[in-house]
Amino acid sequence: xxxxxxxxSLRGLSKDEILFILDxxxxxxxxxxxxxxxxxxxxxxxxxxxxYENSTRTKMSFLMAGxxxxxxxxxxxxxxxxxxxxxxxxxxxxxxxxxxxxxxIIRHQQTGAPHLLAKRVKASVINAGDGTxxxxxxxxxxxxxxxxxxxxxKGLKVVILGDISHSRVARSNAFGLTTLGASVTLxxxxxxxxxxxxxxxxxxxxxxxxxxxxxxxVMGLRIQFERDKAAAFPTLREYSDLFGITExxxxxxxxxxxxxxxxxINRGVELSVDVIDGKRSVIYQQVKNGVAVRMALLKILSDxxxx
Length: 307
Ligand code: CP
Description:
Layout: H1 15-33, E1 46-51, H2 57-68, E2 72-75, H3 89-99, E3 103-108, H4 113-120, E4 124-130, H5 136-149, E5 157-161, H6 168-180, E6 183-187, E7 203-205, H7 208-212, E8 217-220, H8 236-243, H9 247-250, E9 258-260, H10 273-276, H11 283-306
Parallel strand pairs: 1-2, 1-3, 3-4, 5-6, 5-8, 6-7, 8-9
Helix pairs in contact: 1-5, 1-11, 2-11, 3-4, 5-6, 5-11
The chain binds phosphoric acid mono(formamide)ester (CP).
């Protein structure tokens, strides 16, 4: 059981709370694979997706998660909504509350938008990514994928490599992984990873060979061209030559190391094409686990509401 009505951050969640979500997600995964085990336990729950930023994986997996559990799930369609006439987020949320929406799933370019919405509406709010702050459901699916390979997080070395400074995925993973006992290294060019991030309880380096040495998990992150038009490195070729994850770079990692990426991928930039499609890659397992984690959250937050 989670103490709060919302899931807007992994910061502050206890180890037991995270493991409870992951255990529930493992149960849910069986329902994806076995349609006969699905039930309509959320048939009385109405869910709305409010995506102020684009998405393929997160939005579709929430829509699938809701339908697998029998919930009624509606997409606001932000580009055709009254947000385009200037309606404020909080007013949109209050209107959806009145219509009987029980769970609002929001992605927004503004850091803190889900937290603000959660304070103002009766519905449960799930953060599907806010600015450069957090992407808690992505981190949960990453944790689930790592746990399917390794029984215990204690002592695992997880390297997160790439555009750290713009990455809500890196921040949520740092909170989740350190809470579960893993050691986390954030790595990338000096223009994209700040030493200040050590405050999250992680190591920070610009040396990719040192970062990857002995790693159990190597997670690449997308270069977010849409967030910062100023060049953080001279050319894409130079970025991939110096910081791209290749088979050669991975030789320094543990032999069974997992290669992960939240997607979408700039193929051949953050990861070489042979690594993306290679034997260590669990990128599509992450996508499938995304549906399971989101089913688990819809179930957990709904059960709490129905008590
Ligand atoms: N990983 C992730 O958030 O992907 P989308 O932007 O496609 O949802």
